[in-house]
Amino acid sequence: MYGGGYIFDEPNRKQLREEEQHDEPEKLAAFEERIAKGEKIEPGDWMPVEYRRQLIRLIEQHAHSEIIGALPEGTWITRAPGFKRKLALIAKVQDEIGHGQLLYNAAETLGKSREAMINDLLSGKSKYSNVFNYPAETWADVAVIGFLIDAAAIVNQVANAKGSYGPYCRALERICYEESFHLKQGHDAFIELATGTPAQKDMLQDALNRWWQPIMHFFGPPDKASSHSEKLMQWKVKMASNDEMRNQFLESYVPKIWELGLTLPDPALRKNPESGRWEYTDPDWDEFFRVINGGGPCNTERLQVRKWAEEQGRWVRKALMRPTEKRAFPVA
Amino acid sequence: MSNDSLDPRVNRLKLGDAGEVVKVEEGENWNIYEVFHQEKRGAHHEHVGCVHAPDPQLALVFAKEQFARRKRCVNLWVVKSADILAFDVEDEDMFANNLEKTYRDASGFKVMEKINKFKQSK
To answer: Where is this region: Disordered (chain A) (predicted)?
Structure first.
């Protein structure tokens, strides 16, 4: 589901050794030429240290987002209204966990083990998409997540799927295919509430009001505040700017919300007929950073559940372990 | 942590704020297996990705969950990533003249020219 345009930097990133900070200029030039020609980079290929580091960070945080993102929705499986919705939600949540696995594998091809990634998630060193630090209070929240958060994630993932790193692109291709079902079932649940009884409409409007700011946060801080993304764009790690993706999302989905007679809690939201771009009130970015740094309503709970699962599953994993076997990173 | 979580596990298990830092040991997530998917009988098995598993049997079970939830699938193979032997990507140049070997390609033989020349000479 859930990339998010904002890549969090590791708070206590190790200083690279002196020789690692400088890539050989000829190799770097050949590498950049390959990317400019549209070639994909594969695991065994030479790559700049910074390219590898940024990709691990991006893909790992995308993977964590899939795993943690399953939690707010997963709690609604037992309470889904009706058998068909329950089946769809179980399938979706299973897909999200599967996406996490695909992405962990893609990150592993770059040389960071799955265990190291999980440890960094549990210790709080590595982040996940900020939207999952908010609770899904009602069934309407599940409809809003399934429709709009997945839609936002698709905008992000479709862009990233055209990036330069082969294993990440291949994982995203499979993910985007499955996301189309997530989006459709979310839209369907959303429409059912929007066209239902007054109580259902109120419930949906309330969920929309609460989720609008996290959704606007989803693509990350405005371009004017984002640093060092030029190199990432040139290396095709980042495929579109935060504002670009946010605008693309608004262009596609605001009309789909308005056509159902719903409102969005931003009086300034409108498409400028001259520039063709969407205008909106800047969401509260201090709140965004406060939540990323652990101050959101569900940060602690999400990690607690994840730790509990890790601890409860440990004896099974250990019983099945064959530590003498040779391990290797995925080949592609 | 407050007791009014929407996640029933948090309330039921009384998951608290504090707690020891969980550390996953290296190797705890087992080994990596490459997965090959066959869409229909008679077709090649194609590489689709990989799974973590303690042994080949469980790798097959996980591969089914991961790569055969949708669409057609009639069979899967798994093989340990460590057992795959591949050329070094830096040796790619050894294949460079493949496209120049017209003598082992049907397009490298022009028989019609010779036949026509022979017919005209009669």
So the answer is: 1-27
pLDDT per position in chain A (332 positions), as tens?
Answer: 444 444 444 433 344 444 455 678 999 999 999 999 999 999 888 999 999 999 999 999 999 999 999 999 999 999 999 999 999 999 999 999 999 999 999 999 999 999 999 999 999 899 999 999 999 999 999 999 999 999 999 999 999 999 999 999 999 999 999 999 999 999 999 999 999 999 999 999 999 999 999 999 999 999 887 666 788 999 999 999 999 999 999 999 999 999 999 999 999 999 999 999 999 999 999 999 999 988 999 998 999 999 988 988 899 998 988 777 777 888 88
| Residue B40 and residue B55 in contact, taking contact as beta carbons nearer than 8 Å | no
User: Element (H or E) spanning B33, and its range?
Assistant: strand B31-38
User: H-helix or E-strand containing B111?
Assistant: helix B111-121
Per-window interface: A 249-308 vs B, CB < 8 A: 300-301, 304-305, 307-308
* Interface touch A301/B1, C-beta < 8 Å: yes
The residue ranges of every structural domain in chain A are 26-319
pTM of the model: 0.90
CATH number, domain at B31?
3.10.20.520
Whether B83 is in a domain gets the answer yes
Residues of chain A neighbouring B50 (CB-CB closer than 8 A): 105, 330-331
Please tell me which residue of chain A has the smallest CA distance to B84. A331
Shortest CB distance from A308 goes to which of B8, B13, B51? B13
Domain span at residue B102 reads: 8-121
CB contact under 8 A, A327 and B32: yes
In this structure, are strands A278-279 and B31-38 parallel, antiparallel, or unpaired? unpaired
Domain count, chain B: 1
Taking CB atoms and an 8 Å limit, are B15 and A305 in contact across chains?
yes
- Complex ipTM: 0.86
Q: How far is A280 from chain B (nearest CA, A)?
A: 32
For A165, phi then psi, to 5°, come to -95, 115
Whether B54 maps to a domain, the answer reads: yes
Please name the residue that has the structure tokens 């939540």: A291
Asked if residue B49 belongs to a domain, the reply is yes
Residue B100 in domain: yes
How many whole angstroms separate alpha carbon B49 and alpha carbon B37?
9
Q: Position A234: which residue type?
A: Q
CATH numeric code, A26-319 = 1.20.1260.10
